[in-house]
Write a structure and sequence with these properties.
- This protein is of the alpha/beta class.
- The chain has helices at 44-62, 78-97, 107-115, 122-132, 142-159, and strands at 4-10, 15-24, 27-37, 66-70, 101-105.
- The chain has a single domain (4-159), classed as 2-Layer Sandwich (Nucleotidyltransferase, domain 5).
- It is built from 5 helices and 5 strands.
- Strand 4 (66-70), helix 2 and strand 5 form a beta-alpha-beta unit.
- The radius of gyration is 15 Å and the shape is globular.
- It starts with a strand and ends in a 10-residue tail after the last helix.
Length: 169
């Protein structure tokens, strides 16, 4: 398998985490990670535009081969789910408009791929992200570590031939 550049996205309206890794021969190399921030005082459309433009900039700068994004799961706060869904939507739009292959993974799949246990605690996932990427410390903030975990998950599943690709619209 030749080198693949993977953009991992942990969507959120206030904070969208991103992680970019190169996966080659069962080894990972971190390229970049961080977050795209917006303020609660900004209009919702402006916040979503920041996410969209930020992801476009990441794609233009790093030229990933694929984007892996966390699948939505419903929690008790419907407003939060809707907001995260909107952030996820603009991330998908950015990747689609740049002709990236897009893959989605559930939180359980991410934990399984990174830790080996689908019910792992957040701290276990963060520790394994640090170990797999040979980093000096756990990536911060948590959203960036989560995005790196999603990118690692895609590398694991894609190399085994199993992945969930979002259907073409």
């Amino acid at each position: 398998m030749s080198a693949v550049i993977i953009l991992g996205i942990d969507p959120g309206t206030a904070i969208t985490g991103y992680g970019i890794v190169v996966y080659e021969g069962n080894h990972y190399h971190v390229v970049s990670y961080g977050v795209l921030n917006s303020s609660k005082t900004e209009a919702p459309a402006s916040r979503l535009n920041k996410i969209y433009e930020g992801i476009n900039s990441l794609i233009d700068t790093h030229r990933p081969d694929a984007m892996a994004i966390e699948e939505l799961f419903f929690n008790k706060n419907a407003k939060t789910v809707i907001q995260v869904g909107q952030a996820r939507g603009v991330a998908l739009l950015a990747a689609q408009r740049r002709h990236l292959s897009i893959f989605e993974y559930t939180p359980l799949q991410v934990k399984q791929a990174v830790v080996g246990y689908g019910r792992a605690e957040k701290q276990q996932v963060q520790f394994m992200v640090k170990a797999i990427l040979n980093l000096q410390e756990i990536p911060r903030p948590d959203d960036a570590a989560d995005a790196l975990a999603i990118a690692i998950c895609h590398g694991h599943f894609a190399s085994s031939g199993y992945y969930t690709r979002i259907k073409e619209m």
